[in-house]
Amino acid sequence: MQQEPVILRCQCVLFDMDGTLLDSRAPMHRAYTEWAHRYGLDPARVVREAQGRRTIDTLRTLAPAGVDVEAETLALMQREYDDIEGIVEIPGAGELLRALPAERWAVVTSADRALARKRLAAAGLPAPQLLVSAEDVARGKPAPDGFEFAARRMHSDARAAVVFEDAPAGIEAGIAAGAKVVAVGWASAAAGLGETVRVHDLRGIRVTLDGEQIVLRIAG
User: Is 18 an active-site residue?
Assistant: First the structure.
C-alpha cells in the first residue's frame, strides 16, 4: 500500500558523498581489496569497515602492528584519487542538488578534499559552495563534528538540518548531531540507529521554500 509522503522542514541540508550522492563502490573496492591482500586481511571486512569512515581511521583500526599508518593512508588515498572509473551519480542526486538554494546545502564527507572534488566532477554533480572533508575535523564519523561544523558555517545548527547518509557511521554521526536523518538505500544501515527516514535513492524528492525554511517532500 502506498505510504503517505514524509515532510521534513529544515534550515540546511547536509549530504554525505560516497553512497549518498554518488556510487564509488567500484574504485573503492579495488583500492581497499588491493590493500587488504597486501597485508593478508579479509577484503570483505576491510571494505565493510571503510564504509563512511576516513581512510586514516580505517587503517588505524585494521592495519597490522608495525605498519606506518600515515604513509599507508597517503598511498591508499592516492590510489583512490587515480581511479575514477565506474563513478556515477545516485539517481536523482543532481536534480535534488540543483533544486536546493546553493548556499543552503553542503557536502560532508570522510574523503579528503581533492578526492571529493574529483569524484563529484566525475559523477557530473554540482560543486558545493561548502565542502567539509576529512581535513576539516579532528574526529571523523561516527563523531558528529563534520555535520556540526557544516551547519555552523551556514549560520545554522545541526539540529535544524536534514542529513542524507548511507553508511552506519554517517547515520550515527547525523543522529549524534541532532539532525533529522534520511538513510539512502534499502539496506539495513539504519537498523537500530534511531528514527530515520529511508529512501531507495534520491529521485522524487520535492523541494519548496516556506519563508526561511526548506521543505523536503519525500514520496512514500
Answer: yes
